[in-house]
Amino acid sequence: MSIKSLLSIVEPRPFMNEYQITFFVDDPAANSHVAQPLSRLAKKFKSTIRIINITQNRTADLSKSVAMLQVGLLRGDLCQITAVGIDAELACFVLKDVIAEHYDMVGSQVNHEFSKDLIQRMPQICPPCDIKWHHAKAQTQLTKFECLKGLAHLVYPEDPDELILAFIKREERSSTCVSPGIALPHVMFESTQDLSIAVIVSDDPIDWASRIGEVHVAIALVLPTKPQREHIVAATNLTRNLLHDQVNERLQKTRSSVDLQALLMYISSRLL
């Protein structure tokens, strides 16, 4: 089976019927203006609706009047509103209007694929160096080897065999599953001068031969053999932040590839 039939660069992926609105806080003064309207709207839906401050690792039931106070939104915080239930998609559609009026929504005016559009529109979340971003959605059950092969094709499509071999040799030393559901195959690669991050998401679990468990999100981190200081800083930020439970969960449940790229950019730009 060809790699193109295994992967498709499309969005979104259904995952536990959760829908999200991802946004940044520019002006914390807006919190007092939206607290009551958001609470009233959240009560109108049957779905469970929560607000998550990813930066501060806080979460609250949005239907409660004190929700905005509980999550303590500050300038620069990355947040999500999540909805789970039979009317979750409708709930997010309605709540978007309020969020868009007072905060900086990630998905607006950006296409659905990983691209530089998001970097240009939201420079405040840019990592300390240029990163080549790649993304694909698994369309069938993948083995670990097929996933590594797909990541190599995303990063270095001209001649992926050498990169595939580098990934395999790294896995032979120890599994790169870093937390439940997340794998981080990482190598230094002679044929690149840039830092590349490639992501494959899979609804079906991938057996990663790890005691930690199976994988739903594989994030390949490929550095040049002589990385710049900025490359190392971005890679270190990403690696350490993947150990946070809240980040782990958000990476696996975020449906939109634009939102997923924003989250990866954010956790590559700073330590949470």
UniProtKB/TrEMBL annotation:
Pfam families: PTS-HPr, PTS_EIIA_2. Residues 124-267 form the PTS EIIA type-2 domain. InterPro entries: HPr-like, HPr-like_sf, PTrfase/Anion_transptr, PTS_EIIA_type-2_dom, PTS_SugarTrans_NitroReg, UCP029195_PTS_EIIA2. One of its GO terms (molecular function) is transferase activity. The keyword Transport applies. Keywords: Phosphoprotein, Sugar transport, Transferase, Transport. Residues 16-106 form the HPr domain. The keyword Coiled coil does not apply. PANTHER family: NITROGEN REGULATORY PROTEIN, PTS SYSTEM FRUCTOSE-LIKE EIIA COMPONENT-RELATED. This is Phosphotransferase system mannitol/fructose-specific IIA domain. It comes from Vibrio crassostreae.
